[in-house]
User: Fold this.
Amino acid sequence: MSRHERRAPRPGVEWEFDKIVFDRDLSRSAVAKMLVERAEHGGWELDRLRIGNDGIRRVILRRKIIRAVRTA
Assistant:
């Protein structure tokens, strides 16, 4: 259950965001392992982690968007 978004916090820097929701039945180590996998292979970094009263973890990951500059 992830959704990609794009927003530019300041000129010249553009980020791509991915929202993930982890069920409360997953252990802390399992969630950490999944996040490490995404960081190592996808270039994502942790932006925000919220744990609700119901135990559901809502994670927002981000990565920089690098635009190729056309040369003449």
